[in-house]
Amino acid sequence: MTVGRQLARRGGPWLAAKVAAAEDEQLARLLRTPPAGRLLLWAIFTGMPHRVRASSTRAHVEWRITRHRERVLTRRLVLDPDGPQVRPPRPGDAPADLVLHLDEVSFVRLASGDRSVTWLILRGHLRVEGSKLLAARLLLDLDPPVPSRADGR
Questions:
Q1: Closest C-alpha among 56, 144, 52, 59 to residue 95
Q2: pLDDT bucket at 60, cuts 50 / 70 / 90
Q3: Residue 136 and residue 126: Cα distance in Å, rounded?
Q4: Most confident of 34-38, 51-55, 101-105
Q5: In CATH, 3-141 is 3.40.50.1820
Q6: Which pLDDT score is estimated for 144?
Q7: Distance of CA 56 to the CA centre of its chain
Q8: How many percent of the chain have pLDDT more than 70?
Q9: In the β-sheet with 98-103, what is the strand arrangement from edge to edge?
Q10: Is residue 31 packed enough to be buried (19+ CB in 10 Å), middle (13-18) or exposed (0-12)?
Q11: Domain residue extents for the chain
């Protein structure tokens, strides 16, 4: 059964367990494998608006995920009191209030709850541009599918 079907059937906790058990090279290999890599990233971004707690925050958060062969996948998380949404950036968009740069393996580990924002920043795997206040607020408003591991990673 494909990763996409497994994820659809079993959800976030299944993904979190698989990610936690995998080495970085195994995740990188999976993310390079069509269509599994694209499906996994699609599933994470598709589920992201459902993990944002109700908030009065209005902002555009841009995720820039460096994929294999140095390609960059860019998606915007638009935070609005009427409901969040994730979409590709559009021509004419105002500059993002917050830009998050990370590689695809770190993104999957962050999204699954296997790594914390603090762990990624301190080790240079996550670069934050823009409002640090918004970055801190986003941490309060965005739930991972499962909590980060107890060892602080």
A1: 59
A2: very high
A3: 14
A4: 101-105
A5: no
A6: 63
A7: 21
A8: 87
A9: 85-87, 72-79, 59-66, 98-103, 126-130
A10: buried
A11: 3-141
pLDDT of residue 74 exceeding 90? yes
Rounded to the nearest 5°, which phi and psi values hold at 151?
Answer: -80, 5
pLDDT at 118: 87
Give me 5's structure tokens: 């079907």
Going from the C-alpha of 8 to that of each of 36, 82, 83, 121, the distances in angstroms are 13, 26, 23, 30
Give the Cα separation of 46 and 85 in Å (integer).
9
- DSSP classification of residue 2: -
Of residues 127, 108, 95, the one with CA closest to residue 68: 108
Instruction: Tell me how far apart the 2 most distant CA atoms of the chain are, in Å.
Output: 43
